[in-house]
Amino acid sequence: MYEKVKAEAGGMGSWFHQNFVEPGKIPMLLVLASFVLTFAITRMITRLIRAGKGPFRNIGGSGGTHIHHVVPGVVLMVVGGFGAVGSSRSGVGAAVCAVIFGIGAGLVLDEFALILHLDDVYWSEQGRQSVEVVVLAAALALLVLSGFSPLGVDSLSEEERQDRTSLLLTLSSSFVFVLITLSKGKLWMALVGTLVPPVAIVGALRLARPCSVWARRFYRRRHRARARMTLREYRRVRRWSAPRRRVQDWIGGAPDDELAQRAGAPDPPR
C-alpha cells in the first residue's frame, strides 16, 4: 500500500514537473492562482461590507474620499510587472513578482466596470462587466497553461514553423478570422479564438449580432439575414440571460436594484 501511494505521488510529481516546471509555466500558474484567489477574497470582503457584517470597512482618504482597491491594484501590477521584466524567467524573484502581479490584476479587474464607466458602478447593473472580464481573463490564462498559443502556432509542426510561408499563412488566416468574429460583435469568441482558432472560425461563419459593425455594413440590404439575426439574438438572450445572471450573482453578488426588488423595497437613489 505504501509503495502504491509513493508511486502515485511520484507520478503526480513527474507530471507537474513535465507540464509546468520544464516549460517554465510556474510564474503563469502563480499569476493565475493569486489572481483568482485575490478576486474571490475581495468579493467576499466587499459583500460583507455591503451586508454590514464582519470587521471590514471601506477605506477612506482625506476629505472622506473613498479609496477603491483598484488604486493599490495598479501599484501592485506596476511593481510586479517591472519586477518580472527585470528578473530572470525562473527563480524566487520571478515567483514573487508573479504573485504580486496576480494580486494586482485581481484587484484591478474586480473594478473593471468602474474604470470603464469612470463611475462607482460596483454594485450596479454595469458592475456585472467586472465579473465577466475576470471570468474571461481566468479562462484565457487556463488556456495558456493548457498549452495553447496565440493564433494556432502550437498546432504547427517543427518543419511548418521553419517554413516562413506556412507560418505566415497560418498566422494571417487566424488573425483574419479573429477580426471577422470581433466585427460581428462576438468579443468572447474572438478573444478565445486567438488561442483556439476553431472558435474564431465558427464565430466568423455564423451570423453577426445586431448593432455590430459587420451587421451595419453588410446586412443593410439583406432583409432575410437581418430577420434571422434578430430572431437568433432574441432566442439567445431568452435562453441564456437568466442563467448567466444567476452565475454572475453567485460569483460577484447581485446589484443593489435587484436586491431591492427582491426585498420589495424601492430602488436605492443613484
Overall description:
- This protein has 270 residues and is an all-alpha fold.
- The protein has a domain at 1-147.
- It is built from 13 helices and no strands.
- The protein has helices at 2-21, 26-51, 70-86, 92-110, 112-117, 128-145, 158-162, 164-183, 187-193, 197-205, 213-218, 223-252, 256-263.
- Helix 2 runs parallel beside helix 4 and helix 8 runs antiparallel to helix 9 (187-193).
- The protein is flat, with a radius of gyration of 23 Å.
- The termini are far apart.
Distance between the termini: 64 Å
Rounded to the nearest angstrom, the radius of gyration is 23 Å
Fraction in helix: over 70%
Shape: flat
Strand content: under 5%
Structural class: mainly alpha
How can the largest sheet be summarized?
none
Spans with pLDDT under 50 lasting ≥5 residues?
none
Chain oligomer state: single chain
What series of H and E elements makes up the topology? HHHHHHHHHHHHH
Helix tally equals: 13
- Number-wise, the strands total 0
Q: Mean pLDDT score, rounded?
A: 83
Transmembrane segments: 26-46, 66-85, 92-113, 133-153, 165-182, 188-208
Protein name: Integral membrane protein
Keywords: Membrane, Transmembrane, Transmembrane helix
Organism: Streptomyces camponoticapitis
